Amino acid sequence: MTSRYGLEIRAATAADAPGLAELLAEAGQDAAGRVVAARVEALRQGAGTVLIAQEWGPPSGVIALHWYASLLEDRPVAQITFLLVGQDSRRRGIGRLLVKAASQAARSAGCGALEMALPEADATMRGFCEATGFVEGGARFTRSLRRQG
Fold first, then answer.
1. What is the CATH classification number for the domain harbouring 119?
2. In terms of Cα–Cα distance, which of 80, 76, 83 is closest to 117?
3. In a domain, 98, yes or no
């Protein structure tokens, strides 16, 4: 998709799962390669995509997004649900490039807006969102759909 200084941004495939699992584990999100492969394929088959940034070896970064129709918007809305850049690859513009590639993918899917779901309101991520053109759009609440025992 995009290449800059030896860095390639492209759609992830099931073959990237071992490297993605390694990247996720670095961030404390343990998942077996086969589980990651199934999740990547599910997003690829549905209304979404997973993009990776890769120089050599395992991916340096990953971004996941999906799009959905909204009663309040004329065009679908794309939502970034996951963004991670490896610890050793941060502060090099990889996150910004992933957001740019995600924006292009969303436009190609006919979306009119891109939103970022922030799991935690940390200052670093807020600053990143503001620096990449996002504006705060209100609070978000989540609820588990599983029974709490």
1. 3.40.630.30
2. 80
3. yes
